[in-house]
Amino acid sequence: MMAGEESARWFARAEAVLPGGVSSPVRAYGGVGGTPLVIQSARGATVVDVDGNEYLDFVGSWGPLILGHAHPKVLEAIEDACRRGTSYGAPCMPEIELAELVVASYPGIEQVRFVSSGTEAVMSAVRLARGATGRDLIVKFSGCYHGHVDHLLVAAGSGLATFGQPSSAGVPATFTALTRVLPLDDGTALNKLFAEDGKRIAAVVIEPVPANNGLLLQRPEFLRALRSLCDRYGALLVFDEVISGFRLGPGGAAEHYGIRPDLVTFGKVIGGGMPVGAFAGPRALMRHLSPEGRVYQAGTLSGNPVAMTAGLATLKIMTQEDGWRRLDELGRYFEQALTAALAGSAVTASLARLGSMFWLALFAAEPPRQTERIDARTAGVYARVFHTLLAKGIALAPSAYEIGFLSLAHSRVDVDRLAAALGAALSDPKLARSVA
Ligand code: PMP
Predict the structure, then answer these.
(1) Is the model's pTM score more than 0.70?
(2) Which among 120, 143, 158, 435 could bridge 371 via Cys, Cβ 3.0 to 4.6 Å?
C-alpha cells in the first residue's frame, strides 16, 4: 500500500499551511521518503488512513498509547471528565489523585509538578536543578533527546539524526555554553569531566533507557557509576523517563535498575494519549519551586482535568490488568519470534528490547550501546524495510532511529505478523545486493 490518493490530497493541503506538512518533524517521511499517511481514526492496535487502509500500528503515537488506541474505558473516563468542564485553572481531583499515584509508584519521590509536554518537564527540571544547587553546568549524553529546549538541543536523538543536523539553527552558542555532552557507556570520559568540573555541575540529565537514537541499552554499572559520581560531587541526577516512565513499569528505569535519581521527568504514558508531562522529586528539592520557592515555573493548562483523567485511567487499567508483566511477556515472545525469523536474513540484525520497547539494530550482531556505533548504512536499509512493511499493512516509525512500542492491544498473532514481515524484508536478496 502506497499512500493513497486521499492521503496525498490531504498532505498537499498540509504542506501549504504546516511547515513540512507536519506539526512535529519526524512525522514527515524525511528519513524514509514518500508521502506520510494522513490518519482518520485508530482503535486498539490499528490505525486507519483517510483512504480507508488499515495498518497494524507499532508507533503508538510515539509511546503514550500503552493500552492501544481509543481504549473504551479511557474514552469513557475522558467523556465523563469533559462533561464536567475541560479546564478550570484551579486544583482538581484527578490532578491530586494522579500525583498521589505517581508518588506511590516511583521510588524516592514525594511531590510532582504537572506540565503539558515532555519538553517542558525536562526544561523545568533543569531549571529546578540549577536553582536548587546554585550551579550552572548541565551534562547530557550524545544521542539522548530531552525535548527541544534550547540548551539541551545538542547531539540529540532521532529527529536531528534523521536530518543529519548536529544541533539546531536558532540556538545561540552562548545558550549551550553551559551544556557538556558525553558519549554514553564511557566511564573514562565521565570520570574525567567530573574530575575537572564536578563541583560546577548542577545536573546530569540522562535517558536511563536511551530510546531516541535506537534503543541503546546501558550497562547497569555505567548508570551506577553516574549515580555515585553525582553523589560525590553534589550534582543532581535527573532521569528523563518521558519514554520509559510507566512503560517499563510503575517504578520506571529507577526500579528496573535499582538506581534512584534525584529528579525524574515523565511524559507520554502518564498522559494516556493527552498532552501531559511531569517532573518529580523529594520535597526538599521540589520546595524550591514557585510558589514556595524561588524557581519559577507555571502553566495555564497544567494539571488539566481531562488530561489528568486520561492518565489516571490508563495507569489504573495497567495495574488492574497486570499490564506491565503481560507486556514484558509479549515482548519476550516477540524477541523469540523475531530471532527465528531473522535466521536467514541478508543483513545482520539484532533486536534491542526492554519490556514493550524494541529497536532493530541493523548491521550489528549485538545491539550497540553508543550512538557513535550505529552503522551508517542503517537509514538506507531501514527506509526499504519501512516501505516493505507499510505495503503489507504494518506501520513502524518513519525513522531508523525511532523505537517501536507494543501495547496491551497487540496480540501474539500481531507480533508474529511483525516478526515474519521483518524477517522476509531482511531476507530479500535485492536488499542484500543494494547494500553490498
Ligand atoms: N524526553 C524524552 C526522553 C523524549 O523521548 C521526548 C519525546 N520523544 C521528550 C523528552 C520530549 O517530549 P515532548 O515531545 O512531549 O515534548
Answers:
(1) yes
(2) 143
